[in-house]
Write a structure and sequence with these properties.
This protein is of the alpha/beta class. The protein is 32% helix and 18% strand. The protein contains 10 helices and 14 strands. An 8-stranded parallel β-barrel has the order 7-8-9-10-11-12-13-14, surrounded by 5 helices. It starts with a strand and ends with a helix.
């Protein structure tokens, strides 16, 4: 249920109403916009007398929200959320260029790539330290050593870093990581999501390979219900009957998620297509569709990459894509 307050409602009046609602064992999410304040009521709202609430002098209207996800719902938070990582902002018109190798392989590699993508306009560095692989015999990442190298790259370039967490036991290793990524395979690892909800770090949550958008938003709810509202959604392709590409990039998800939720949405065309030549057109299409950022794999020597070299751009290719992305944004903004 949401209650929309009238313009001119004072903070004291709002606090008094919130206190009354909390006496009914409800959690109240307050969203202040430029033109209105929205109170999101979370819990058993059956005990709330809608007519009584609507009749209050400061209340403009009261509506029930049918969707099971509440805190991620745009009805609870009409304005776009802007997630800030250092000096970088994502959402609400701010665009993120996230780039870097699929996996960290060496200090020389990660710093070289970080410097190259920064020069081309990237404002966040990605890199895998822990790598979930289909085969147990494939390269699993450098783990803790990989995080240390990412931090060295951050020190060398100033770029904030994002890397994937695999399980709760590794959380202490992510103390200095700027954005914690939850991969597609862990999208419904609810114990992990709840634990991440207790942190104050931005979480980049990827859609699962065969999950609906509502399931994605319900996973977000696990994080937000624990107090962490800094969530970034990521569309990275879903599994369909098509086999030519690694996955099928669902660009309609960008518009649908923006309609349903106030959270920023980024698109990963690298994992979606699995082919480097398809990454630039899909990245530009995602930008034109209104994505709040793109997440692209870049490697200084893709043919020798230990992980996903086929879908990685070279620094020169990323530089070209970055220029194209800027032109697309100039055309649509």
């Amino acid at each position: 249920m949401i209650a929309i307050l009238k313009n001119g409602t004072t903070d004291e009046q709002t606090a008094h109403l919130v206190s009354w609602l909390k006496q009914m064992n409800l959690d109240v999410h307050i969203s202040k916009g430029a033109e209105m304040t929205v109170l999101g009521l979370i819990g058993d709202t059956s005990r709330v007398d809608m007519e009584l609430l609507s009749s209050l002098e400061i209340v403009s209207s009261v509506k029930r929200v049918s969707e099971p996800f509440k805190q991620a719902n745009r009805k609870f938070h009409p304005n776009d959320s802007i997630i800030q990582i250092g000096n970088v902002k994502i959402g609400g018109g701010y665009f993120a260029m996230i780039a870097g190798p699929c996996s960290v392989e060496s200090e020389e590699q990660i710093i070289e790539v970080a410097q190259a993508v920064k020069e081309s306009g990237a404002n966040i560095l990605r890199g895998g330290a822990f790598k979930p692989r289909t085969s147990p015999y494939a390269f699993q990442g450098m783990k803790e050593a990989g995080i240390r190298l990412l931090l060295k790259a951050k020190e060398a370039t100033g770029l904030p870093i994002v890397t994937e967490i695999m399980n709760i036991s590794a959380l202490d290793l992510f103390t200095d990581v700027d954005i914690i990524q939850v991969g597609a395979r862990n999208m419904q690892n609810f114990d992990l999501l709840k634990e991440l909800g207790k942190t104050d770090k931005p979480i980049l949550l990827k859609r699962g390979l065969a999950n609906t958008l509502q399931e994605l938003l319900m996973s977000v709810e696990y994080i937000m219900s624990e107090g962490n509202e800094n969530v970034i959604l990521c569309e990275r392709g879903i599994r369909t009957f098509e086999t030519y590409t690694r996955n099928t990039l669902d660009l309609s998800a960008v518009s649908v998620l923006h309609e349903l939720s106030h959270l920023p949405v980024v698109v990963d065309p690298s994992h979606a297509t699995g082919k480097s030549r398809l990454v630039p057109p899909m990245a530009m299409a995602a930008t034109a569709a209104g994505a709040d950022g793109i997440m692209v794999e870049v490697h200084n020597n893709p043919s020798c990459a230990l992980c996903d070299g086929a879908q990685s751009l070279t620094p020169a290719q990323f530089d070209d894509l970055s220029h194209r992305i800027r032109k697309v944004r100039e055309a649509i903004v």
